[in-house]
Each structure stands twice: as C-alpha cells, then as structure tokens.
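Subgroup meeting minutes
Present: P.N., E.W., G.H.
Scribe: E.W.

1. P.N. recapped why we're keeping a running log of single-chain structure predictions: easier to compare across weeks, and new members can see raw inputs and outputs side by side.
2. G.H. added today's entry (133 aa).
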Amino acid sequence: MSQHQQDGQNSFEGAAFVAGGTAAGAGVAATVGGMGLAVGGTAVGITAAPVAAAGAVVGSAVYGAKKAIEEGDASAIGAVVAGAAGGATVSAVVGGMGLAVAGTAIGIGMAPVAAAGAVVGLAGYGLKKLLGH
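Output recorded in log:
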C-alpha cells in the first residue's frame, strides 16, 4: 500500500473514531438527560451538544491511544501528562465543582478533572495524528 493510500485509510479510521464518540455522547445525553454543572456557586444546564462534543474528544483520544500503541510513539505520554497538569491546574484555580445528574449531585475533586485533562491531551495527540504529521 502506498503512503498516500495509507494516509487516506488513517484519516478514514480517525474520522470514524471521532464520529463514533460523537454518536456515543449524543446517546448518553439522550438517555441520561437533565444534567448540570455547578462551579463557584453558579450552576448551568448541560444540553446534548456539549455531551456530544465530549464524546468527540473521547473518540479522538481513543484514536490517539491506538496510534501511539501501533507506532510505539512515546510522545503521546507527554500529551497525557501536559493535559493532566492542565486539568489539575484548572481544578486548583476554580475549585468547588459538582455534577448534577437525574436528581443527584456529586462533588468533583482534582483527580477527575486531572483525568479529564489527560483525555483532552491525548485527544490533541489523536487530532495531530489524524490531520497529519
């Protein structure tokens, strides 16, 4: 297979991961519904669009993880660490967050925000791989 054909195959595969994540996010929003995020004394409702966008981020991160494993690319670890550090920083600066779902609310500490940042970092790596080197 030529390099051009392989790049086209990778683009299709990456787009499929992102589209699948978007569909999964939309499915979660439709199934769960009625979500909200509380930060700093203010709460906002979360509609289907941000949940679908979060699904797209997760799909891109899964594609990034797949490519990093296939290619043995250790630079993906740097993206994960940078994202986790960013998430921890956001949590430290903003503090006091909570998520309300289906009539129940839970507090969100630093660890889940750092984990979300790690996913965003890996998603950035996945997009880099998807869009070319």
